[in-house]
């Protein structure tokens, strides 16, 4: 196995594609310093998979691409292909000639190839493992690396011996196997976590399935109820439409009488419409013809402007080219004179050079001095030669420029003649169009006056029709708004009635009293039924009452004890009782309210109830103040010892407890008053809707 060919394209100093052939035995690459010998070694190391750019004598990997030179542009990528003879079958591949390739782009992306087929860097490393050939192997050694190997530690030199002995192959296999074991161990540890996650997901999906089934049953029941409701509504609509049908029949008799007059009027109207349509058609045709003529006139005018501008630019270009030709002729004359002068100088220098060359042959002792003089004179000759080449190049450029300017001048003059001819023809055409326009405007004016009369009649009829339609739309929209408001109020009424009937928010003991009607004659009612308040104080009063809202007020202590005994015997649950007779006889002395702008009032004073229940309100709410802002009210030392509640329901009691009720959607107090108010409002709306029908 040996390297047979190395193809380098764009790598470091190799701008053009270069192919190096390596035969059997020893091949030497010889040349002076800086000619690129080491770049060949770097190319071999790079194509075998070298990843350290410092080893390739670069600051980054993209620096290996040819970066340009004087007169040569930089390349966007470079590639190297290395052909290896596998005649002894050391490489684990079927081919006798194995070609390894590597390509890199400016953005840092690399590509690897084996026999022109894309592969990975790992595939190339596996191909050359245990062969003594590779980017880090001992087969590729630079001159400076010999000292580095000798100065390295025992461990670093051990790597070379292991590479030569073929141990590195098994070391890499062992390292990869240990990595696989670590990954497998981590996966095994993660299995229990994954199982737990899957179990939680399964439980969640089971809950979702149950909810979905329950939702399906609810949807089915809702569908059946919606069908029942729609049948009821259809029956109601049929009953409501019966008197309307009778009225329609009455109006149909009147309509039959008026049909004869209407037919006569419709016939006349049809004739007028036909006449109007004919006149509108004539007007539209006249307008279309006029529009076409206007477009033709505008296009012709636009073309004239364009051609005038082109003619003006052509004249300017001709003048500019003439001035350029004059200046170029003068420059050509100057260049010719300078070339003759330089040639004369060159003829004078040549014999001096011949003399110095003859002296160089005979006088070997003065070799250093003559050689330095020769180099200086040679530089002068090179400069003169380059100047001559530049002058010749400029002369050829000026000749080509003069030829091109003459041809462009001729073209511009021809174009100018063509434009003048077209301008004449277009002006004649515009004059014809203007004459035709005057005839069409007279006809158009008469048609427009006639159409104005008909359009005025049409506008008056349409305005009257629009007024009637608008009135009908306003009546319908007002009715829809009233119906929607009626439905929302009826929903609210149904909600409050169901809440009172179901008694879902009542304590179990109080439910038992209502359901079994225990001693109903001696029961006055609950606090929530007795008290009510303005809408803006409902949340605050509801928070102030708290559990007392469901407290049952009895006539006296005897009735309260009788109800309590019955509930205890039957274990009916929780209940709170107040004997009203004892509350009424008790003298309640309330403290004076402190002077503070934040205080709205005493909670008992904001209650709306009968005067006989004033002692009850003072007992429960006498020491509670309703304030505008709880936080600012707490800063006043005069309010210490009071229970404070703001309008949102946030409270601070005299036992030093802060409370925030959250979102209170429905308050307990004043439900009966709300139901009565809703009923009266619903009755009013139903009456107004019936009047509208």
How would you describe the overall organization of this protein?
By secondary structure, this protein is an alpha+beta fold. It contains 14 helices and 14 strands. The chain has helices at 37-47, 121-128, 143-151, 154-165, 168-362, 367-502, 508-516, 527-530, 538-545, 557-570, 580-585, 614-621, 630-634, 671-692, and strands at residues 2-9, 18-21, 77-85, 97-105, 110-114, 117-119, 523-526, 552-554, 577-579, 599-602, 624-627, 643-646, 651-652, 658-659. The strands form three sheets. A six-stranded antiparallel sheet has the order 2-1-3-4-5-6. Strands 10-11-12-13-14 form a five-stranded mixed sheet. Strands 7-8-9 form a three-stranded mixed sheet. Strand 11, helix 13 (630-634) and strand 12 (643-646) form a beta-alpha-beta unit. Helix 5 packs antiparallel against helix 6 (367-502) and helix 6 (367-502) crosses helix 14.
List the helices and strands and how they pair.
Layout: E1 2-9, E2 18-21, H1 37-47, E3 77-85, E4 97-105, E5 110-114, E6 117-119, H2 121-128, H3 143-151, H4 154-165, H5 168-362, H6 367-502, H7 508-516, E7 523-526, H8 527-530, H9 538-545, E8 552-554, H10 557-570, E9 577-579, H11 580-585, E10 599-602, H12 614-621, E11 624-627, H13 630-634, E12 643-646, E13 651-652, E14 658-659, H14 671-692
Parallel strand pairs: 8-9, 11-12
Antiparallel strand pairs: 1-2, 1-3, 3-4, 4-5, 5-6, 7-8, 10-11, 12-13, 13-14
Task: Summarize the model shown.
It is built from 14 helices and 14 strands.
Spatial shape: flat
For the residues shown, what is the average pLDDT?
A: 76
User: What is the percent of helical residues?
Assistant: 55-70%
What order do the strands of the largest sheet run in, or round the barrel if closed? 2-1-3-4-5-6
